Amino acid sequence: MTDSSLVLYGQTIAYTCYAIVIILVIAWFGFVVTRKGKGNKVSKTLFYSFVTMLVILGVSLHIVTFNTIPWVSMDLDRKNIQADQVFDITMENHQFILPQEKFVINCGEKVMFNVTSNDLTYGFGLFRKDNSMMFQMQVVPGHVNDILWEFNENGIYTIRSTEYSGPKGHQMIIKDVVHVIGCE
Amino acid sequence: MSYIKTLMNGEQSIFNPRKLTPMQRITLRFVVVGVLYYGLAAIEGMIMRIYQIEPITFLGSDHYFAILTAHPLVGIFGSTYLIVFGAFLFVVPFMMKKPLWSIKLANATFWLITIGTFVFWFSGFLTHYAPLYTLYWPLPADFNQFDPLSGAFFITGIAIVMLGTVFFVINIFKTIAYTPEGWEKQPSGALLADAIGYSGLRNMFRKKTKQKEHLVDIPVAAIARGTVDTALNAGIILFTGVLILVYMVAAIMGYDLKTTVIDALLYKNWFWWGLDLIADGLVLIFVAGTWYLLAMMITGRKIFMQNIARAALLVELIVSWTVWSHHLLSDQAQPGILKIISGEFVTAFELITQGLAFFVTLATLWLARPLKMTNELKFLLGGLLGFGLAVPAGIMQADIGLNRILHNTQWIMGPHVHVAILVGLTMTLYAAIYLLFPIVTNGAKLYSQKLANFHFWAHLIGGIGMGAFMGMAGLQGMLRRTIYYEGEFNLYMILAGICGLLLLLAFFAFLYNIIMSVGINGLLGIFRPSPNKTKDLLPAETE
Questions:
Q1: Is the pTM of this model over 0.90?
Q2: pLDDT in tens, B217-276
Q3: The 3-state secondary structure of B71-115, one letter per residue
Q4: Nearest to A59 among B333, B345, B356 (CB)
Q5: What are the residue boundaries of the structural domains of chain B, listed by start?
Q6: Which of A172, B49, B242, B325 is buried deepest, with most CB atoms within 10 A?
Q7: A82-181 CATH fold
């Protein structure tokens, strides 16, 4: 499965390019609008083309990500996919209660993290050694909070609550819990 | 003219608070207190920026999270609500050429929001009640972490603000629809239908020759449309506040109510439905309305493609009521169909409605060129750029795939929230303030254009820069709503801190410029009772 850091890299490039373009467009507009121009007309075709472009962009973003980011379809269909391993984790009183000290995952395995909260709303995220985030989800009390993920890169990952659960909960971190092994 | 004389009486002693009408006076009160609350939110923001670089030892994490809770609420309710409500209570009667329905109610709105904001801020400051603005159940009723009495004061403060908001809503719709004394009977129903965009929608399907004349200008239509969301939002917040208060009062009286009675996910859905009416309905629509107002007043022209712009306001009504699920894309128990339809596709419509307002505003300006680069025009362009940057950032995170790796990171707060609010919304509001300043002050002169220029560039660069560096940290995995003790993201946080400082300097430059323009005596004078009892908006000689 494509690593989430690669998706973030792609997003960074795309948004940076867009940001530069829109800043330049407004700067150009600010310059030109104060000067006399030849044609003081705005065609309706330009307007409708612009709106059509927005519709295409808004809709196509989700179609493109659905077809290119592998965890999207897997997430929506997770109830019908057999996980290779399931880890049941409980969160209570600002603590993680883990079924075992270390989660060892073999390369290519699909793993279900099933997280239950017994009191507050928390978050559950997996983080790389460089603090970057692999994925996260919300952990809502009274509901099933499960996420299916396929691991294709060796590494040691940290578990961290990604949602604020009061001042007592801002350091809910267990370092180096998840170990992925066996990838070439 | 000596410095002290200018400081006391304003630039060239032009501003005279005794000549203000009650309407000008109340508008200025709203704006002045709103600007001061903006300053408070900016200082709180700067404290948090420093904390993200190096936790401040004498300020415990409890206090940090209390600031984190108060900061957005002071910014939205104390600052934005006051400035926007004050401006709109003036603009609606100004554009409709009739008096405001009730100046007393406007005064009540002003005092309720001012006092309510102080109550919740002070309660948080003293007691560190910190469930954040999201109030995820059952955190606001978690009495292992928070004292119920302090929470009750906090929630009461919010409820007072909401009461003031309800008064504003009544005043706006009454002003649109009522018939002033001695006037010919006004068509209330037709006025309201036009105000919410219904007539614009009908006109789109009529032949040009059969299209009906609009009874209200498009900025008033946008204000009315945003006010619908304001009313619904106030209802949701009041309802939630009462619910939380029930738990608090019970705890104070020694009863321990079960928090599991309330479904945390259902609660999250309804509360985000209400909150999103601020973020996606109220802010976007009020901003679009202000852009139209500014474009019309700067150019003296009608809005380009105004029937479509009006109809878009009505479409946005549907959109803003059905987008909330993009906040729950990482909630695994949230039904997938809601995530896809509400969270992704309806949300994508905001790109269209806001993009449309963006285009229409630019086109209106273009048709009137050459324009002079006034303060209002440059701040308007800054505001357009802010939303041009922030809305697509929001659309990206409202995607099931990307949300998995962006939710609750600094990306959300930087390129989306702070760029939208600080650059998009605040620069639009500054544009309106610069535009309305001579009108509501009876021609007071701005003290320094150099300071206004500094205000513009420092705010623009500071706002975009801070958002960008927060976003870069977010893409590297930095979470929001937490504290990093080992300097993990220090490079980005230092750069964001420098940009935050620039924002703060911009604010002080603006504040100083305004004080020197109207003088301390003038500033104090607007809070004294008006000797003038007219219901007119402007004094007779300046009309």
A1: yes
A2: 999 999 999 999 999 999 999 999 999 999 999 999 999 999 999 999 999 999 999 998
A3: HHHHHHHHHHHHHHHHHHHHHHHHHHCCCCCCHHHHHHHHHHHHH
A4: B345
A5: 3-542
A6: B325
A7: Immunoglobulin-like (2.60.40)
